[in-house]
Amino acid sequence: MTTLRFSLTALASAMLLSACSQPANETTPASTEPAAEKTSHSLVEGAAQRLDIYQPVDLTADLNHLSADQKKMIGLLIDASKIMDELFWDQAYPGDKQELLNAIDDPKVKQFIEINYGPWDRLNNNEPFLTGVDAKPAGANFYPADMSKEEFEGATFAGKVDLYTLVRRNQDGELYSIPYNVAYTEQLKAAAELLREAATLAESQAFANYLKLRADAFESNSYQASDFAWMDMTDNEIDIVMGPIETYEDQLYGYRAGFESYVLIKDMDWSQRLEKYAEYLPSLQRGLPVADEYKAEMPGSGAQLNAYDVVYYAGHSNAGSKTIAINLPNDEQVQLEKGTRRLQLKNAMRAKFDEILVPIADVLIVPEQRQHITFDAFFANTMFHEVAHGLGIKNTIDGSSTVRQALKELASALEEGKADILGLYMVTQLLEQGVITEGQLEDYYTTFLAGIFRSVRFGASSAHGKANMIRFNYFAEAGAFTRNEQGQYAVDMAAMRAAMNSLSEKILTLQGDGDYQGVGELFAEMGNVPAELQADLDRLSAAQIPVDITFNQGKATLGL
């Protein structure tokens, strides 16, 4: 077994945060654990065989139709994305990134650390893959490592549940918050300048306006105006998703957003094909299989469906499993007034279909149903998952809070479960109405089942992983599929449809009631991997089917 030597420090991002201004009685805004002694580490048992679970893919796209200014702008956006990447490292890993990486000699181990943004395996329930490494803090580096939930919930301080703050201690041991624009002043200022420079090259005035507003947001810590502006863009070929966005990394409460970035090239033809679906959202909302009070909110009329080639991932979006579709903004007010934009990352989606989903189906789906595994169905199921984030309910029915606030750290996983199941509901409705004209219902249901096997391999620590386990176990109890003696699965169409409707009702009711205890009970009952399923997943590993993909990406890969 290869022996790896490095020094783990528990000081959180001292280099990034040392320039932050702070009151005289406050310590540097970093984690409070003392630096550890230099220690020898080795891969834990079984870790060596996981170093190859990611299939490398060149992240490229056709840039020939872009102007010289557009290509230059992509380069600037990639530069800004690299800053987002460093900021997410600080949020995810309570230690010194460069010290960790510089001390690793084995290039495969170093790459695995880079993929996971630390020494914890994101697709194995965040288990450490190096000896001598403690469990990953549930709150990552958003909170002091020694902070308990009881202490946090009993404390009162400004910005306590703010999306865009870190929580630290002053020298008296008291908790306080630091806005991101203060904690990361120099980095965000540099990113803002790159966005403003990119704005001068934008051919779309709406996109130029968005870039300038997003730059302002980096410096002000107020993102809503730029979110509204992002929803007003329709004619831009180049796009970005950049900033502190998703809260998945905060598994303690789900309150704090991690930095990330996607640099995107819009497929104008594919996007035009998808436009027609947005007009059906109000009727689909009204038809949800749940009591009226849980579907009273109407999605905003500005909802958009677009297809893109992604040319750069950074930060949270690049950590562990790679996102292939996006639904944003997350701001509930923007969603209700403007709707959301659903972005389908076509080239990344195709890579996962070819490299992972089809090989999985060849092992786990009965031969007579494999003909129903199609890219059109995979694309639609993925797309309508994102569309479904805009359906349902954003605020509890008693008006006391948002669903996200009421369900705390459980909100993200339940929301992903809602999007999965309502996405399938939408496909069913639109196919039967003749709006979707590609394929037949068996394609979508069978590809959906194969997609569960793909996603449950991400582990139960992620929001998507928990959602997949709940759905798999719920479907199993409802008889939505059968398993033969060869360990191959077949969809029961009628039973899957019934299970889809009943699970949709259950999740929407839990969200609308803000039922934190009920969600916890659902996760405890159905959020685990049964032994039989684990044995089937082990067969996929034995067949050397990758769990996910990783990218060779950047300006050189794009020829810029």
Describe the structure concisely.
Pfam families: Peptidase_M49 (PF03571). InterPro entries: Peptidase_M49. This protein has 22 helices and 15 strands.
Q: What is the rounded distance between the termini?
A: 40 Å
Low-confidence stretches: 1-39
Question: Largest sheet, order of strands side by side?
Answer: 8-9-10-12-11
Q: What sort of overall outline do the alpha carbons produce when their principal axes are compared? A: globular
The class by helix and strand makeup works out as: alpha+beta
Total beta strand runs: 15
Strand portion, in percent? Answer: 5-15%
Profile the largest sheet. 5 strands, mixed
Integer-rounded radius of gyration: 23 Å
What is the quaternary state of this protein? Answer: single chain
Helical fraction equals 40-55%
Mean pLDDT: 90
How many helices does DSSP assign? 22
Properties at a glance:
alpha+beta, 22 helices, disordered N terminus, 15 strands, globular, 560 residues, 5-stranded mixed β-sheet, Peptidase_M49, two-stranded antiparallel ribbon
Task: Describe it.
The protein is an alpha+beta fold and 560 residues long. It contains 22 helices and 15 strands. Strands 8-9-10-12-11 form a five-stranded mixed beta sheet. Helix 14 packs across helix 16. It is globular. One of its GO terms (cellular component) is cytoplasm. Keywords: Hydrolase, Metal-binding, Signal.
